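Quick start: read one record
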Amino acid sequence: MNGLKWIKPSRDFGDVCPVFVKRFKAEALGKRATISITAHGVYEAELNGKRIGEYIFAPGWTSKRLQYQEYDISSLLREDNILTITVGKGWYRSPLALWRKESQNDPRTTLPGGIVAQIKIDEDVIAETDESWQVREGGVRFSEIYDGEVYDANTTCDTLENVKEYPGPIGWQLVPQQGPEIREQDYIKPKDIIITPKGETVIDFGQNITGYVYFTLSESTTKGDEVEISCAEVLDENGNFYTDNYRKSKSKLRYTARDGAQSYKPKHTFFGFRYIRLDKYPGGAVEPGNFTAIAIHSQMKRTGFFECANPLVNQLYENIIWGQKGNFLDVPTDCPQRDERLGWTGDAQVFVKAALYNYDCETFFAKWLTDLALDQQPNGQVPNVVPDALWGAGGRAAWGDAATVCPWQVYLAYGNKNILANQYGSMCKWVDYITASTNDMYLWTGGTQFGDWLALDSSPSRHDFIASAFYAHSTQLTIKAGKVLGLDTQKYEALHENIVKTFNETFDQYETQTECALAIEFKLAHDPQQAIRSLVQKIKEAGDCIQTGFIGTPHILHALSRYGHTSLAYTLLLRESYPSWLYPVTKNATTIWERWDGIKPSGELQTADMNSFNHYAYGAVADWMYGTMAGITPMEEYPGYKKIQIAPQPDPRVGWVAARFITRDGLIESKWKYVNGKVRYDIKTPSPSIICINGQSFEVMAGQYTFYS
């Protein structure tokens, strides 16, 4: 694909999505025919009126390289053919991160939209992009990532115009598809139709999703009738439609009808929503059968399954799954609804371990981490978001550490050294960046940090603690990765030793739950027993409440369980009042919230400027549910679950747990249940395993086992 000619409209189409057209003949029917395509924007291709492939939002979102896709079109080919490729703005040309200052105009909005394509029969090229192609306006009159889509079904646009060749992506490589395709995944019918106190007609699909709505109109529809749909995640405390938390994202679908029965779903935009409001809809009474919510996400194999005797915990788990589905849209985004939807590195870092239990995400993360390395600055600074839509902003502790944490977790999950080989240079550069940018040797001090984002007990004065802890952690992971690859790590071993020594000399007291948890989990505490006593005390002083934010939450339950306080960890998990994991469940959440109290106990909503109801960060608790409740954990010595540790830790308040996890070698099942005062364990392992029950270890071969305690 590199070296082919790029084409664009010869004039500026403005907001209208161009439709590129190529008529061609094919004489060698019956042989394998393929088309390779990519675009500046997102495209949808049709051959002879039928859609090519199932990929939604092709070619995806990448940094400094552009994926191209190859499709088998053998079954669609005729002697006389017409190919059309519609191009929306997508991530390439939409204004991203609208919450930035208005004076910062996004240069993406002035970029041209174009394509490059090639059609082959066997290895013979029968058509490729050049100035023999033509272009016309299409029915999609407007389409952007944040603001939605406008479609006019009456657009004929028979006038074909010339195209113009242009240089294409200067300095960017065209590469074969690396990540999984985005596809339609779930189809959800309305749960309820609501007339709000304001008199608005609202459809509740009962599930917060990422995607769009498919609707149908009846035979009585008249040309010019309009459909206008707005999206929302929640209703306000009065039961009215609420969109303030979308900030500047309009998230609207507008459709102008032709005569007769018809249907439509957006082509080049997506929304985050549970509710839709019918601002305009022809035909009188609203029939629920005329609407379907379509959830989309990257194509990934489901590998983890969990349930227990507590229905609220089960709903929490389902919320975590839906949060991952809604935010694994080619890149691991923070949220799918407001004027953001960016690949925040910190969110990915805290959730990666849970993500790898839930789904097979190896290619998903391999693709995203490749982009992380490409977006990394020459001095090693990692952007806050990948792809870097914030023009170089980065270098924050726990965010940039995605460069080390994510590759290591992917390696542990699948045992594939390639992820470490591909990312090791990036890992080293990140650690070296911290070393060069700190104000104090062997600590990470100075600069601007996010700290323990949205924690209830955090203090900016303690950001140096968190930054220094992650400095040590990333250095340790870089050492581990280097040893796996057989590389000399003496430089980083000496650095790590000095960081730990200096850390303990500087931070002899832990002020927050997160500080305790990080000191324990990153093996920084000079006296781990004192650190765990401090953590337990802080939890008790808070009324058995969690106080951590994005950074501490993934570690706090693990720290407790590691040092014999699993019962207290269960207490935190099972708490139903604010703040807790189950509190949003009691408020009918169907995904994970950005804040512990997105909806306050009073029913009021939190501040609109930062209140997503589909943020997966706190869903990191799933890795404790799999790893401690069910006891399924990877072993560093045997990555990829070649040898498995299964060490469930029951609690009578839960009653029973049943978890399944599909490794590359087969299915692990871990079940326990209280029966007549005893616990029965039923375990199935596809590989040699170490099963730990009540402190006793049993080395077993692949098979099924039952134990009592």
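The first strand starts at residue 6 and ends at 9.
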